[in-house]
Amino acid sequence: MLAAMLIREALPHDWPTMWAFMEGIVRAGETFSWDRDTTESQARQMWFPEPPGRTFVAVDAAGTVLGTANSVRNHRGGAAHISSASFMVDPRHSGQGVGRALGEHVLAQARKDGFRAMQFNAVVETNTRAVALWRSLGVLSREVGDAAGGWSAS
C-alpha cells in the first residue's frame, strides 16, 4: 500500500501519463473490453465522459499518475439512478492498493452524485484480483465474463 496517495479529478495534462499505461492494457485485450486497435483520440473521448460522468486519477506524493477510473450514468429513464465505472491501474503499481482506493472513491462519489446503484458491465473472470476487489467492495455478486475466446454477445 502506498503511504501517500491522492484521488482527484483528472485534468487534461494527466492524459499523456494515463495513456502511456492505458494503451498497453487496451492492446493486450485481456482485462479491458475496448477494441485492441482503439486510437488515443478514441480512448480519450471515451475516458472523459460528459457530465454527470467523471474521470479520476490516483497520484502519489510526487504527482505521478498511478491509475485512473471513470464513472458514468449506466442507464437512462427509470434506471437513471444506476452508474457504472471503469478502472485501469498502471501495471507498475499493481498490488499497491491503487485499484481499491479508486474503487472506494468512485463508489463514494457516485453516492454523493445521487446514484443509488453501480453496475459493472464487463469484468473478466481471469482478472482474479479485480474480481476479488469488486466483490469485497460489494459491487460484484456473480456476473463475470470469460474473455478467453474474445469478447462475445453470448
From TrEMBL:
Cleavable signal peptide: none
Family annotation (Pfam families): Acetyltransf_1
Highest taxon listed in the record's lineage: Bacteria
PROSITE patterns reported in the protein's UniProt record: GNAT (PS51186)
Domain N-acetyltransferase: 5-154
GO molecular function, one term: acyltransferase activity, transferring groups other than amino-acyl groups
CDD domains: NAT_SF (cd04301)
Designated name of the protein: N-acetyltransferase
The organism's taxonomic lineage, starting at the top: Bacteria, Bacillati, Actinomycetota, Actinomycetes, Streptosporangiales
